[in-house]
Specification:
- The chain is α/β, with parallel strands linked by helices and 199 residues long.
- Helices cover 24% and strands 22% of the residues.
- The longest helix has 13 residues.
Length: 199
């Protein structure tokens, strides 16, 4: 829970760095969306570099369960839902025996993919299978997939449904639809963990 120092309105933000990265950099990373004018939410409206902020927590239950090398893992992120997943991915990919991980990442426009250079590095090195899709980008410069995450997206990344741990984070409609599709494709409900916001 974060707000500018002394303000009353605190809002939840997901931690976007692993414990290891936080220890190395001595920083806590958050992913904070801004509006069309480049302004953050009201609880941080007066914040500029160097401004003190009040932080409470961590809170919440969307945490990384125990996973082993033989596990398959699918992370599904919508927009800023990549924040907690990036934290989990960094933690896992530092292991010598990381599980096989796929990431399905949706954003409105191609310039809204956060941490994308880092994710591409992992994909290029073969540590991560990365699939991206945009939902509202009219630009002809985007040559990747388009459209909301749906069944065809999952069929491309879900290799062993019964043996895959699925972590889904994003807006409520994306989370609801993803969970329903994962179940239809054979992922047991106990292997699906979610975090959502909105209705």
């Amino acid at each position: 829970m974060v707000c500018a120092h002394g303000q009353d309105e605190r809002r939840p933000y997901s931690i976007a760095c692993s414990p290891e990265r936080a220890a190395e950099t001595r920083r806590l990373e958050l992913l904070i969306a801004v509006d069309a004018g480049g302004d953050p939410a009201a609880n941080l409206a007066s914040a500029t570099p160097g401004t003190l902020v009040d932080v409470e927590g961590p809170v919440g239950a969307f945490t990384l369960p125990e996973v082993n090398r033989d596990c398959r893992m699918l992370c599904v992120a919508g927009g800023t839902g990549i924040a907690p997943l990036r934290s989990m991915l960094d933690h896992l990919l530092r292991r010598a025996a990381a599980p096989r991980i796929s990431l399905l990442y949706s954003a409105r426009r191609s310039d809204e993919f956060a941490f994308i250079d880092e994710l591409h590095e992992h994909a290029t090195a073969g540590r991560l299978e990365l699939h991206q899709t945009v939902t509202r980008d009219p630009s002809s410069s985007w040559s990747g997939r388009r459209g909301r995450i749906g069944r065809s997206h999952f069929e491309a990344v879900l290799h062993e449904p019964a043996a895959t741990l699925c972590l889904v984070c994003g807006p409520a409609p994306l989370v609801r639809e993803s969970v329903a599709t994962l179940k239809v494709l054979g992922v047991p409900e106990a292997q699906i963990r979610t975090e959502q916001w909105g209705r």
